[in-house]
């Protein structure tokens, strides 16, 4: 087999170039810290790296969503908490106004503060976030949720709840529509409501009552009609007498599984009604109380009617506060769920980062050892070539 000088030179140069290419590749890996300079170096690793990178980006997006959601829920919780404090103040004013020592003028002064609190409550309901969007309008975030019309307070939003994804399989609402927070509240004691007839002339005052026999409670309506100062009839919704009894001041009057109490002297013809609780908005509850306190009461019958109205208002306020407290608890539960999901996302992010490091990051100890070995191989190839290129028959002639 004949080997020419040109073949020797070509082989030597090829070997040096191969060693140089390997050295340059290792040098690039050391410079970038990546063990794969192109997908072709490790196709399986490249696909795995892409999958992990996408998973990491999704987790980062979940974290951003969680930050936005926490801000929205924090704002809503603050507004609901402020509304509860406001209603507590309204309740205190109601009890103050219910004192027999109050005059028409002092009750009107209390009503003036109630009006201010009512305006504050409407302002709470129309709260906007940092972007200027109304937080209680549902999907209609560009429209103020609560406005007052000639017929009362109306809700201008919808019942929508935006769901924000905070985990691979977890989404949470970013708020509650105003229709659920401020509008749909059962009045009275939450099961039924009582009221005194405006035409009453006696001094009887009815309380909020309670359900004493759930098995008989069918949400029926009844009328308590006094046939004399010491006798009354209980009539059903059709006007039929279902029971009659002697009146005892402060004693229980039973009807349809319900018990109510009337205190004070009554007159023949006085009537009191029991009706199923209805959905009502908070604003109308406070408005009705303010109107009652603004109306002058001069006779004993008028003052008794006002006392019954204030008692009804206090029951309504208690229901409204319970409703808001439940709403606040729901918001708090969401924030706790978000916190737990955030912790899960942090753990997942750490695991993804670890897996991504194993796939992409360079083993520096191995790479430096390989670089040193390749450098020695290149130097050996260069020295061998310098020796070979000096070989010639002419040196021996």
UniProtKB/TrEMBL annotation:
Domain Flagellin N-terminal: 3-140
Record-annotated Flagellin C-terminal domain positions: 315-397
UniProt keyword annotations, A-Z: Bacterial flagellum, Cell projection, Cilium, Flagellum, Secreted
Subcellular location: Bacterial flagellum; Secreted
Domain of life: Bacteria
Main localization of the protein described in the UniProt heading: other
Family: Belongs to the bacterial flagellin family.
Name recorded for this polypeptide: Flagellar hook-associated protein FlgL
Classification of source organism: Bacteria, Pseudomonadati, Pseudomonadota, Gammaproteobacteria, Cellvibrionales
Gene that this polypeptide is encoded by: flgL
């Amino acid at each position: 087999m004949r080997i020419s000088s040109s073949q020797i030179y070509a082989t030597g140069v090829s070997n040096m170039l191969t060693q140089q290419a390997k050295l340059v590749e290792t040098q690039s890996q050391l410079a970038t810290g990546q063990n794969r300079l192109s997908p072709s170096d490790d196709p399986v690793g490249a696909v795995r790296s892409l999958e992990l990178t996408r998973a990491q980006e999704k987790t980062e997006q979940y974290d951003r969503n969680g930050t936005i959601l926490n801000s929205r829920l924090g704002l809503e919780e603050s507004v609901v908490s402020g509304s509860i404090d406001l209603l507590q103040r309204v309740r205190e004013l109601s009890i103050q106004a219910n004192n027999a020592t109050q005059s028409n003028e002092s009750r009107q002064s209390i009503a003036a503060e109630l009006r201010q609190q009512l305006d504050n409550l409407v302002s709470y309901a129309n709260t906007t976030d940092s972007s200027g969007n109304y937080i209680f309008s549902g999907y209609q975030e560009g429209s103020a949720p609560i406005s007052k019309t000639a017929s009362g307070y109306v809700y201008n939003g919808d019942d929508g709840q935006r769901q924000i994804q905070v985990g691979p399989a977890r989404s949470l609402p970013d708020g509650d529509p105003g229709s659920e927070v401020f509008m749909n509240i059962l009045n009275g004691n939450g099961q039924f409501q009582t009221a005194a007839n405006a035409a009453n002339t006696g001094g009887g005052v009815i309380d909020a009552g309670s359900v004493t026999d759930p098995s008989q409670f069918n949400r029926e309506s009844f009328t308590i009609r006094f046939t004399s100062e010491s006798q009354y009839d209980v009539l059903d919704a059709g006007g039929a007498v279902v029971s009659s009894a002697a009146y005892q001041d402060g004693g229980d009057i039973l009807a349809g599984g319900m018990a109510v109490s009337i205190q004070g002297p009554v007159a023949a013809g006085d009537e009191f009604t029991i009706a199923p609780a209805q959905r009502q908005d908070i604003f109308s509850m406070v408005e009705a109380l303010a109107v009652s306190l603004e109306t002058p009461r001069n006779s004993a019958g008028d003052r008794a009617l006002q006392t019954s109205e204030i008692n009804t208002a206090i029951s309504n306020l208690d229901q409204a506060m319970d409703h808001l407290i439940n709403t606040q608890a729901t918001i708090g539960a969401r924030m706790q769920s978000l916190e737990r999901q955030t912790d899960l996302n942090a753990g997942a992010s750490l695991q993804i980062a670890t897996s991504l490091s194993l796939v992409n990051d360079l083993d520096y100890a191995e790479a430096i050892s390989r670089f040193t070995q390749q450098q020695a191989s290149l130097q050996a190839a260069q020295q061998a070539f310098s020796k070979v290129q000096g070989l010639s028959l002419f040196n021996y002639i």
